[in-house]
Amino acid sequence: MFDFSKNYFELFGMPAGFLLDAKELAVRYRELQKLVHPDRFAASGEHSQRLSLQSATLVNEAYATLKDPLKRAQYLLVLKGGESDTQHHTLNDPDFLMQQLELREALAGVRAASDPHAALDRLLREIGGMIQSQVAQLAVQFEDSSPEQLAAAREAVQKMQFLNKLHAEAEAIEADLEEAI
Amino acid sequence: MALLQIAEPGQAAAPHQHRLAAGIDLGTTNSLVATVRSGRAETLADGQGNHILPSVVRYTADGVVVGEAARRSAADDPLNTISSVKRLIGRGVADVSSLGSELPYDFVRGESAVPRIRTAAGEVTPIEVSAEILRVLGRRAQDTLGGELSGVVITVPAYFDDAQRQATKDAARLAGLHVYRLLNEPTAAAVAYGLDRGADGVHAIYDLGGGTFDVSVLRLHRGVFEVMATGGDSALGGDDFDMAVAGWILEQAGVSRGADRGTLRHVLDQARSAKEILATQASTTVDVELPTGRWQGSLSRAQLDALIDPLIRKTVHTCRRVLRDAGVSPDEIEDVVMVGGSTRTLRVREMVGEFFGREPLVDIDPDRVVAIGAAIQADVLAGNKPGEEMLLLDVNPLSLGIETMGGLTEKLIPRNTTLPVARAQEFTTFKDGQTAMAVHVVQGERELVADCRSLARFELRGIPPMVAGAARIQVTFSVDADGLLHVEAREQTSGVSASVAVKPSYGLTDDEITGMLQASIEHAQDDMQARRLVEERVEAQRVVEALNAALASDGAELLNTAERATLDQALQRLVDTASSSGDADEVEAAIKRLEKDCEFYVERRMNSGIRKAMAGHRVDEFAQEDGSKAD
Q1: Mean pLDDT calculated for residue range A5-17
Q2: Active site residue B68
């Protein structure tokens, strides 16, 4: 059968690391789907169709994981053998948590601002910048890969989870504001 | 079976027997069928030279009439003439009653979740009505092509939910058609346009039909169509424009709401023709016969625009959301393609053009473009184009979730996830000794289950009795390339697999479908047997040819002598059975057996193909690739 034991990086024939060539990933993704997608087996027998469906599902999952920095980092943590489930760890960084509280307050106040769009835009950019800085740190931490750096990477992943959630909420408010126009 | 069709460029695949395939655009107002002949996709005409089949079915005591003749009788015989059935397909009785005041049919109140319409020919479901339309189109394709269709591609609005897709597939089954794939309408249009132009880049397809609206943003890259995001409204279209105009006419004429069905039909017809005239003229006169007498008046384009602007604005909002989901801005869109008859309305083109900041493309007939795209895809799926580069990667339009405590939804598969996809969720018991649990699957974006669409409810049974919280039941939800949901469940600690009986909230059960099928083929039993035998023999021949071609290309590389001997023997067994047996079931079983014997070889070929594809890459090959970012 299609080798389901391969990890996602092996599946795409790319080196396992946080830094990866997004364009090449996209090219390889399309090549893989051209080979395994159910549309290639629409006139084939049941066995081939089932195999194709499972393979295409796996390729989609692998691609979705590798192309998203947060999911990619989480996946790498699993591969590196460390504990991956960051949800049960409490984040011990009072400064970061305080900053989160402030951002949340700012977000809650956006609708009442004199120019809600501008206020929201500033917030989105600020959160986006913070996410980028976590991504940059992750690149360094995974490059090093020492136990200390991996522990730091785990913390960075936790922070990104916070920040992504906040970003999504800000985007939802933006959508609401646009609908109201 | 057809072995894996992995062919090296320039290397011939199996010697090809052309399979007859067709693409069907099953529209709210009109339907079409198209096919690829001598490399060209074209829509097919009926005996009178008409390509368009009005999606109208009239039931009389003497039989069923489909198309133009049925449409003409709509005003005289409104109760027995079903039009716009696409608005009803896959919907529940409750949805229908919310649309009810606008639908001039006589609905039967029954216990079934599927609405039934009382007609002169008995009660019919929307699935059966749709099947009548599909049957006519399937027959037209077979008459034109001179043979049995091996499969069809049927287009559906991208925004159709699971129930609507399943119902469409069931209708095809009733019509005796084998469905290769349900294809989203905007994607079909992109195929028709994209292959014409070979234009790589990001495109938006705006598809406003008679009763449905879709917008998709997709990236075309060397034959791969990757849908980035899609959105729409499966109950918004040109019919609503007509309704708005009809409402205006009745208001002007001083007729209160609640006009009788015949009148409503008549006024709707007049409203529709006024709208069509206003696509080319600045004003038109309206002349209607009402119970209160004749009413005449004039309608200007500006008045029409004022009536329909709110509806068009809704579609523009959806465009904005879809662009946001796709992560692109309007100026990144290379082309905006207009699809669907309702994009003939000038105001639609104007407002859409304004939003995207460019003139939308209208150069392929908006009525035919979807059927043409479907035909191209059907030809590829039938395996008529080995080595074909084209591949469509579509997404699920609505988030899929389950009901959790307090009537809240937990999303498992977010909208715009590339298909096929599977996600597993673990459940546990909350009482000691609990052996069953109910799961409710919903589709939609809202937080509350009540605001989402109920897809299915099922019960996990046979859970081994344990203390509360000890059982670990993994339920896997998967959505296939047709956009259809499948559910599997397994208890992890004991390995017991729990049975899952999915009860579709708004569909027919398999038994109901089987019953309908039996009723329709009772008379044709003998024909069916003979036809099936021919089909199975053709299939056997294809399998043999495909296996021979595969063995010739890489049998020596991938098989040892003993394996090769086993396959050769298995191959010969099928050749013998196919030529000597007169029983379709026997031939089918022989094909299945050969397929089973080949499984290991098929898998080896797939792996070898992937290895070769991934090993051959070097970074510099990708220098000119697209600008997709993954950060």
Answers
A1: 90
A2: no
Contact between chains at B617 and A21 (C-beta distance less than 8 A): no
What value of ipTM does the predicted structure carry? 0.88
Residues of B in contact with A31 (CB under 8 A): 613-614
Distance from CA of A22 to the nearest CA of B (A): 5
Neighbour order of strands in the sheet with B485-491: B421-427, B473-479, B485-491
Tens-digit pLDDT profile for residues B506-532: 666 666 656 655 555 554 555 566 667
At the fourth CATH level, which superfamily is domain B238-306?
A: ATPase, substrate binding domain, subdomain 4 (3.90.640.10)
pLDDT tens digits, B453-509: 888 887 777 778 888 888 888 888 889 999 988 887 777 776 666 555 555 666 666
- The verdict on whether B169 is a catalytic residue reads no
| CB pair distance less than 8 Å for A44 and B4 | yes
**Which phi-psi region, left, alpha or beta, contains residue B444 (left: φ > 0; alpha: ψ -120 to 50)?**
left
Q: Looking at domain B400-507, which of 2.70.150.10, 2.40.50.140, 3.60.140.10, 2.60.34.10 is its CATH number?
A: 2.60.34.10
Which residue among B46, B86, B162, B482 is the active-site one?
B86
B62's tokens: 């003497």
Q: Is B25 a catalytic residue?
A: yes
Establish how many alpha carbons lie within 13 A of residue A66's alpha carbon, considering only the half-sphere containing its beta carbon. 28
Query: Taking a C-beta distance cutoff of 8 angstroms, is the pair B232, B214 a contact?
Result: yes
Question: What is residue B237's three-state secondary structure?
Answer: coil
Q: Which two tokens stand for residue B176?
A: 């005796």
Min CA distance, A91 vs chain B (Å)? 25
Best residue in B606, B618, B620 to probe A by mutation, most A CBs within 10 Å?
Answer: B606
Active-site annotation holds for B207? yes
Q: In angstroms, what separates the C-alpha of B108 from chain A's closest C-alpha?
A: 39
B438 three-state secondary structure: strand
Q: Find which of B148, B628, B629 to mutate to test the A interface (most A CBs within 10 Å of its CB).
A: B628
Among the listed residues B207, B233, B394, B536, the single catalytic one is B207
Do B615 and A35 count as a contact with CB atoms less than 8 A apart? no
Torsion of CA B226, B232, B235, B236, to 10 degrees: -120
Topology given in CATH for the domain delimited by B22-197+365-386: Nucleotidyltransferase; domain 5 (3.30.420)
Element at A61 (helix H, strand E):
helix A46-67
DSSP-derived letter for residue B551 is: I
User: In terms of CA atoms, which chain A residue is nearest residue B316?
Assistant: A179
What pLDDT was estimated at residue B509? 65
Fold observed for domain A88-179: Monooxygenase (1.20.1280)
B23 phi, psi to nearest 5 deg: -110, 135
pTM: 0.82
From the CA of B265, how many Å to the nearest CA of chain A? 34
Mention every residue, 6+ apart, whose C-beta is less than 8 A from residue B147.
Answer: B20
Using pLDDT thresholds of 50, 70 and 90, give the confidence band for residue B296. Answer: very high
> Up-side HSE of residue A106: CA atoms within 13 Å toward CB?
19
Q: What angle do CA B512, B457, B322 make, to 5 degrees?
A: 100
C-beta of residue A89 within 8 angstroms of C-beta of residue A154: yes
* B409 contacts: CB under 8 Å, gap ≥ 6: B401, B402, B403, B442, B444, B446, B447, B448, B449, B452
Chain-centroid distance of CA A8 in Å reads 14
Chain B contact set for A18 (CB, 8 A): none
Place of tokens 């916070």: A162
CATH number corresponding to A8-67: 1.10.287.110
